[in-house]
Amino acid sequence: MNMIVPESTRGVSARPPVRWRLCWENDLELADHIELSDFFRKTYGPTGEFNAKPFEGHRSWAGARPEIRAIGYDDRGIAIHIGALRRFIKIGQTDLLVAELGLYGVRPDLEGLGITHSIRVMYPVLRDLGVPFGFGTVRAALQKHITRLLGRQGLATVLPGLRVRSARPDIYLTVPPTRVEDVVGLVLPIARPMSEWPAGDTIERNGPEL
């Protein structure tokens, strides 16, 4: 899959439309990784001193590497990015296949475009992947914001009060190899209804966060 999707922000603002490219990770060229690395450093850098560090050295991922990416371009280059990775997470005693969504970024001058556009572009992709659910997490402080953008529009079910244990992407002698975070979960029912999402507020990611 390496295609341009005719999805845009036309009608949302006076800005030029965003052209979406869906591509598998193996389809990215070196020039793509360099451009994405620069995009993430500029996007994540203002949010914290160390948030841009994972993207040094032309690296275009922070923890787990995505399987497929949706990249939105405008006349200035990369505008929006979201990645997806199929994996099994564990909720209680249930192993569940999901497409984890993450590595989300929007260029600072385009904050008004929002995550809703990327989620809408990803829906048909997740259906084609045949996963029962899409899944993502955000910081607990963003619960009201993400509920307004996704929950109230019916794009995702917001699950507050989750604890997620993840493997660190790198090994350090001074810290444990895993970390536990209190987060807000986002669930997108794809091939199965939300009623089949397993009960439980603790999730084992069994790998690094996307």
TrEMBL record:
InterPro entries attached to this UniProt entry: NodA, Nodulation_prot_NodA_CS
GO molecular function: acyltransferase activity
Tree of life domain: Bacteria
Gene Ontology CC, one term: cytosol
Broad class of where this protein is predominantly found: cytoplasm
Keywords, sorted A to Z: Acyltransferase, Cytoplasm, Nodulation, Transferase
Enzyme class at the top of the EC tree: transferase
EC number: 2.3.1.-
One Pfam family it belongs to: NodA
Compartments, record wording: Cytoplasm
Its biological purpose: N-acyltransferase required for nodulation. Acts in the production of a small, heat-stable compound (Nod) that stimulates mitosis in various plant protoplasts.
HAMAP family for the chain: NodA
Family: Belongs to the NodA family.
Name assigned to this protein: Nodulation protein A
Organism of derivation: Bradyrhizobium canariense
